[in-house]
Amino acid sequence: MGAANIIDINDLLKREEMHTVLYFNYDNEAFMNTGIQESGSTPFACSTTTGPGGEEIKGKIGVKQDILNPFGFLGTKSSFLATTSIAYPKDFIGKVIEAMKTPGGGFIQCLAPCPRGWRHQGFESHKIAKLATDSGYWPLITVRIKDGIPKWSYSRPLKFKRDKFMDFLKSMGKYKHLFKPKFEELLINEVINQAEARLVNMQKLVDNFGAENPMDVYKVNLKELKPQTHVAPGYGLCPGCGAGTALHMLASGATQVAGNNILYVNNTCCVEVATSKDELTSWKVSWMHHLFESGATVADALATSYRIQKYKGIVDKVPYCIHIAGDGSTYDIGYQFLKSALVRSSSFDIQNKYCKDNYCE
Ligand SMILES: Cc1ncc(C[n+]2csc(CCOP(=O)(O)OP(=O)(O)O)c2C)c(N)n1
Ligand SMILES: [Mg+2]
Fold first, then answer.
1. Which ligand approaches the C-alpha of residue 32 most closely?
2. Cβ of residue 247 lying under 6 Å from some atom of ligand 1
3. Ligand 1: distance of its center to the CA of 272 in Å?
């Protein structure tokens, strides 16, 4: 392994490039705002209200899907894909900035502990998020696609730590049925095997499609960052909600890049519901709610329409655009919208230039 790839955010901020849309998924591993129903992101044996852990059923029958890594092979031209953690803010904010300064579409996923749905205390969210990454359950991965070639890298070692993973499982009520009334050895082994297999696959992706220096370190001085100006502190998310912390880190990275020249599009989810209660809004910048499934298409369409308006001289500048969605509308109902929007955002820049150069002048 070579030296780490040190990425200074001040260098990123000097870049001329601009993304088309950053699609952001906070993954709390279930449909939370509608009552903790299972999603494609819910892990094996995890208890939800549609697959409760008890005597008869032992939680979800099925796997936690991986969508980020397959996005690396969609055939897009240029984009930035990454996982983040609320326990690693410099990495999180650095990735948001890099995504917004990479031409094409970006896709960032953050694991978002949910005290209500995962059944832990609000003050434990940070500790649980850290255990998730340090155990190898939620690795911090980056895929940079340039000229159609994806390169994998990581920002924490890709090592599965069984003891930490057991602590992670035991820290949440959603796995309690695996330990009480009896120790479900077979099921626990299967949970471990699935988590470890996901990590081994990521290591293989790094081995086969890795960057020259596949270890990324973002140089970020948190004290030098401008305070985020996008979301007001008042909103209805639960105390200790991981999505709330993720939202602030996302807005913090976005403020450095865009100031207030930004618009957010939100699918229906906890963040959307909790920041737009009754006629009150927590948003201090342009924000639009669209349906549970189709926000990604709307975000892409808005970004495209601003580019056309700029080209026609109707507006002076194109706003940065961020789409926010939960796991339900990322893995399940909104998947085809997101996938298609990401492909368009990550390829059409090149095609639009081709059309402009050949047909418009
Ligand atoms: C077509 C459609 N089906 C179902 C719903 C109801 N609904 C709204 S949000 C949601 C679940 C959202 O889950 P997720 O995306 O994971 O966000 P979270 O609530 O966990 O933040 C559902 C089922 C809807 N609004 N539209
Ligand atoms: Mg969810």
1. 1
2. no
3. 10
DSSP string covering 128-149, please? Answer: HHHHHHHTTSS--EEEEEETTE
Q: What is the DSSP letter of 283?
A: B
Segments forming the whole domain that contains residue 176: 5-360
Q: Report the nearest-CA residue for atom 26 of ligand 1.
A: 292
Q: How far is CA 228 from CA 232, 248, 315, in A?
A: 9, 7, 25
* Distance from Cα 329 to the centre of ligand 2, integer Å: 8
Q: Which atom of ligand 1 is nearest to the CA of 325?
A: 15
* Domains in the chain, number: 1
The tens-digit pLDDT sequence of the chain (361 residues) is 568 999 999 999 999 999 999 999 999 999 999 999 999 999 999 999 999 999 889 999 999 999 999 999 999 999 999 999 999 999 999 999 999 999 999 999 999 999 999 999 999 999 999 999 999 999 999 999 999 999 999 999 999 999 999 999 999 999 999 999 999 999 999 999 999 999 999 999 999 999 889 999 999 999 999 999 999 988 999 999 999 999 999 999 999 999 999 999 999 999 999 999 888 899 999 999 999 999 999 999 999 889 888 888 899 999 999 999 999 999 999 999 999 999 999 987 656 666 677 666 5
Flag whether the pTM goes above 0.85: yes
